[in-house]
Design brief:
The chain is α+β, with helices and mostly antiparallel strands and 443 residues long. The chain has 2 domains: 251 residues, no CATH class; 182 residues, 2-Layer Sandwich (Gyrase A, domain 2). It has 11 helices and 19 strands. Strands 1, 2, 3, 4, 5, 6, 7, 8 and 9 form a 9-stranded mixed beta sheet that branches. The protein has a 6-stranded mixed beta sheet with strand order 10-14-15-17-16-12, with no helix packed on it. A hairpin with a 2-residue loop joins strand 8 and strand 9. The longest helix is centred in the first third of the chain and has 16 residues. It is globular and about 70 Å long. The chain starts with a strand and ends with a strand. About 10% of the residues have low confidence.
């Protein structure tokens, strides 16, 4: 990538330059309405375009100077805008050709607002690398980023010593959604956050947590301008925020529908602790083999999600198309073993998901195995009252009734703090022939 003044960024091609592609022209025009004084902003451009074999999916990233509004707690900042996740050309070179009625390309572009430091005369270019990294993820996975999404980065965004190591997504407060010749494009803004803030957004939901952040002085203001020098979390800036998050989870439930985990299970009861490493598999040794088709079908199903009988938000999954993956096998008992990090989520899973009629999945981090916890109101599950523990291939479903959820909530309450927890730690419910063991991370 290289930074230079944008060619024809006013919306009109410069002398001696080819016509600006129609999709790009529409996005440039939207930016020009906001930044009429900056018709030719600095741009970071891909040296070799993606459709010619280059590594960077974004053709351009424009960098605008935004004066903000101190009276509204909006700091002066640099505003970065990507071009390339949507269809800029409309000729099939990058994205499938679409009409104006369907989203253009992936249907969105990324933006980022970085607080301007007093001594800065030009925008730092490191945000462009972050945006290219996110774009590569989107192109490789096909997963789009939406308002309310979160991204675990596990590294200061600018490679400094900053606490800002992760990202939330929100609708850009100025650009919103733009109509283009190839369909609508939404501008999704990256918001840099601390680990504690990411965790809260994951456990509750991104949109609601972003709304909380917007009203905390010092957290970025209503436009959530990222300050890489911010040393305090929103919970330190305003201790009442934690209570608001807890109450939100209690009242609205959690949007976190699954996590990766190190897991194994068996039908043995009373339970015998046996790690995945010892058994040589993530599942019990007598688990039937699973075909490539079945593996892909599980991934598709988990990605699409099961349908709760009473979806509580627009972000809830749309449902499961019931299809036989393999012959369903009922288990007489179940002993589930998980790594500690995944297991510590059980209090959240019980009160934020299952008590609200929603499912939760632990997906193996090393193979296609998965364990989904469901309740009777979940539609499309193959676990039911007659066979509460049921397997299809390497997918285990566990049906939990309301009274069992209440019992588990009491038994596992200590996981809310996890202080002084000795591992392995096994919880048993003998009358249900069910046990859950939490194992050290290294096993």
């Amino acid at each position: 990538m290289e930074a230079k003044r944008g060619v024809g960024a006013s919306g009109f091609p410069g002398v001696g330059f080819p016509q600006i592609p129609p999709g790009l022209e529409a996005l440039y025009s939207a930016c020009l309405q906001i930044y009429s004084d900056q018709p030719n902003p600095l741009q970071v451009a891909a040296v070799l375009k993606y459709w010619l074999g280059g590594p960077d999916p974004l053709d351009y990233i424009s960098m605008y100077a935004n004066q903000g509004d101190e009276s509204k707690d909006i700091s002066p900042h640099w505003h970065y805008v990507s071009f390339g996740l949507s269809d800029l050309h409309g000729d099939g070179r990058v994205h499938e050709i679409s009409s104006t009625d369907t989203p253009s390309g992936f249907g969105f572009e990324l933006t980022f607002r970085l607080r301007k430091e007093p001594d800065e005369t030009g925008p730092p270019t490191w945000p462009a690398a972050v945006m290219q990294g996110l774009a590569k993820y989107v192109f490789q996975s096909g997963n789009v980023l939406c308002d309310g999404d979160h991204v675990s980065w596990h590294c200061p965004l600018d490679n400094s010593e900053s606490r800002i190591e992760h990202m939330l997504m929100m609708e850009d407060p100025q650009l919103g959604t733009v109509a283009t010749p190839f369909g609508p494009v939404s501008f999704i803004q990256i918001v840099g956050v601390c680990a504690e803030e990411l965790k809260a957004a994951q456990q509750w939901n991104g949109r609601s947590f972003v709304a909380l952040m917007q009203r905390v002085p010092g957290a970025g203001g209503p436009w959530l301008v990222t300050n890489m020098r911010r040393g305090e979390t929103v919970f330190e800036l305003d201790p009442s925020i934690q209570d608001a998050v807890d109450q939100g989870i209690e009242n609205e439930g959690s949007d976190l529908s699954g996590v990766s985990a190190k897991l194994c299970w068996s039908e043995e009861f009373p339970p015998v602790v046996q790690t995945a490493k010892e058994s040589g598999s993530n599942t019990s040794v007598d688990t039937p083999s699973i075909s490539h088709y079945e593996s892909e079908e599980i991934k598709r199903t988990l990605k699409k999600g099961l349908l709760g009988s009473q979806p509580s938000s627009e972000t809830e999954d749309n449902g499961l198309e019931t299809q036989e993956l393999a012959q369903t096998r009922a288990l007489d008992a179940v002993h589930l073993q998980l790594n500690l990090e995944a297991g510590l989520l059980f209090p959240l899973v019980l009160r934020g998901r299952l008590k609200h009629g929603r499912h939760f999945t632990f997906k193996s981090s090393v193979d296609s195995a998965a364990v989904t916890l469901v309740v009777p109101s979940v539609i499309g599950a193959f676990a039911n009252a007659e066979q509460p523990y049921a397997m299809q291939g390497s997918w285990l479903q566990i049906l939990l009734t309301e009274d069992l959820i209440s019992e588990m909530t009491v038994s596992m309450e200590e996981l809310c703090t996890a202080e002084g927890l000795t591992l392995p730690k096994t919880y048993t419910w003998p009358h249900r022939k069910m046990a859950i063991t939490l194992l050290p991370e290294e096993l």
